[in-house]
Amino acid sequence: MAEQQQFYLLLGNLMSPDNNVRKQAEETYDTIPGQNKITFLLQAIRDASAAEEVKQMAAVLLRRLLSSSFEEIYPGLTLEMQTVIKTELLTSIQQETSPNIRKKVCDIAAELCRNLIDDDGNNQWPELLKFLFDSVNSDNVGLREAVISALLQTMEDQSNPRVQAHAAAALINFTEDCPKSLLIPYLDSLVQHLHVIMVAKLQELIQKGTKLVLEQVVTSIASVADTAEEKFVPYYDLFMPSLKHIVENAVQKELRLLRGKTIECISLIGLAVGKEKFMPDASAVMQLLLKTQTDFNDLEDDDPQISYMISAWARMCKILGKEFQQYLPVVMGPLMKTASIKPEVALLDTQDMENISEDDGWEFVNLGDQQSFGIKTAGLEEKATACQMLVCYAKELKEGFVEYTEQVVKLMVPLLNGVCLFMIISLTCARVRGPEYLTQMWHFMCDALIKSIGTEPDSDVLSEIMHSFAKCIELMGDGCLNNEHFEELGGILKGKLEEHFKNQELRQAKRQDEDYDEQVEETLQDEDENDVYILTKVSDILHSVFSSYKEKVLPWFEQLLQLIVQLICPNRPWADRQWGLCIFDDVVEHCSPCSFKYAEYFLQPMAQSLGDSSPEVRQAAAYGVGVMAQYGGERYRPFCTEAMPVLVRVIQAADSRSKENVNATENCISAVGKVMRFRPECVNVNEVLPHWLSWLPLNEDKEEAVHTFDFLCDLIESNNPIVLGPDNSNLPKIFLIIADGVANESVKTEDACSKRLANVIRQVQVSAGLWTQCVSTLNETQQKAIQDLLNTA
Predict the structure, then answer these.
(1) Is 51 strand, coil or helix?
(2) Are 427 and 476 in contact (CB under 8 A)?
(3) Which of 290-299, 425-434, 543-552, 558-567 has the lowest mean pLDDT?
(4) Which CATH number fits domain 562-695: 1.10.760.10, 3.40.50.2020, 1.25.10.10, 3.40.50.10170?
(5) Which of 452, 464, 490, 626 is the most exposed place for a label (fewest CB within 10 A)?
(6) Where are the domains of the chain?
(7) Residues near 106 by Cβ (< 8 Å), separated by ≥ 6?
(8) Can you tell me the distance from the alpha carbon of 447 to that of 472, in angstroms, rounded to the nearest whole number?
């Protein structure tokens, strides 16, 4: 402590106006060993009782030390000391209240980070990246400003292009994850900095041919525009001329990546600012893309421009809408060519493999017995992107795409590898040609889809196929599956569930093995996540079958019943119980009173699950109460009565609105509303209604929010005295609920209740005094939400 106080005195003397005092202090400071300097300087920065000028001087000296003497000091520190420095800096940035000190500590962190980037460009301080992500999304405005400011300052470090590129890359990550509302206050500063850097780097490209930083900056601009959306309109003219210039002139082979990223940037900006702003440039941009498209056959399979081009076309399709149809004859040929790429595969022995390197674009899977399966991956990413773009065109153009539907379906069906969403959209397109053509297309797909669910070994691909199959059944509806389909599907789903339980047992056995360690556990958890994801897709398929076939499908379902019951046993993992309950929720919702014959299997587990420690399980159980009240019929009445006090307890728990609990809580609130609305005999409505009103609106679960607003409209339209209050005294509260619902997009224009809510507001407008009273309690955002509702509903 005494040493630290002496150091503070030394820092004070370093700032002395007396030359002699200052010179002597500098000489003394120079004699202190580097490690001790770092320790004393860090303590000074972190000491809340130290004077601000002392802390400022300590911050300046520490940055100077890391800048001028990093190689002499830092590598010699113990790993523990290096960790302390990093931790102390990040803690100080979070806790420092002075903006000046915080800014200086950010500068130190930036300097340390710059020095910790190795010769290969790898960041040796990964914790900093996580901290920066958290900071940019933090509620602490000062912290966000300091971090963003430090990032921008680092990006302008012209003497260190690699550091600039890393800062730009970090900015891309931030803006991609940053909510729009947090980005907007810094948008002007961000954009102006990016423009200055882009202009400088464009000149550098012309004069020296260096392109690394410019590539990252172009992507940063695209990312900012993508997040800012219409707020980017004022900056459009600042960037578009330079970006078009790059696309027109960056034609050399070594600039292919830059050109591709610039094409991406232009299309993302166009999508962000909208058709009206982009249209004056749209024709010129389309001509640039068409020129590249014309030269498409000359591009190599691994040309980075291909995937950027294909994605850009899809964005242009979204911007132009139906007007894009005229370009289909130009883009479809190359797109189909890319989507049809067949990968080169080989079965090799060890000797053959010595002649092939993974750097040549090959990846290998060891098959044992000194053999490996190899696949050349060049072009595969472009193939996947092309397939996704075909989906986009079909989705955007609908009947405008119909002449390509059959050709593309015949390409897609044999692939079934992550592009199955096309099946759904192509069926939508096929409706234009009538029911016979639609049925023919579906039969062409259906057999292949079911067989693939039974045979596909890759879990990612399998989940995509299962998801698409479920969506197709929802689209086609009752009658789309014949008896053979049902028989085959039942056997496959039964096999998936049995495999799910078997895999869990195998993982538990592996946890008892003598070689079990953290690494093994990590692998087992990954396997478990994959299995659970497939379970969610089993649930999706059952949901689509129940919603399409209703109670007619129950005899078929009974072959799976005991396996679903097994999922909801109390000893099962929470994910099993969650999805098992979701399946029974579907049985109740879509099979109505007929579902009660299975009540013995799920009522007690559902009742116990309302108070489960897992929010996901609580949510599934609460949703079940709601559908029992709404659809289940008279025999579920005792259960609804018993569930009400449990639901209320969950809602009123102290942490019920925490991030991890809010969705479950909102499902409980919705369930209480459904019981009052559809089964009022199960509850004292007059007693519960004031509480229910105080819990509104629901901001996270948009689907359940609509149910609550529908019920609220019922209550208001029937002049319910409890909801309206004496002399309509509750109307300001109701206005607040409606305004927050609209502002949080819990109420959308297409929802039927939006017109009903707008009518409530219009009735209040008739009374000037009441209108003023209601509106005066709202903030600016809420008032705008009310006005938006009146304008659109």
Answers:
(1) coil
(2) yes
(3) 425-434
(4) 1.25.10.10
(5) 490
(6) 1-114, 133-228, 346-378, 416-559, 562-695, 703-793
(7) 93, 146, 147, 149, 150
(8) 12
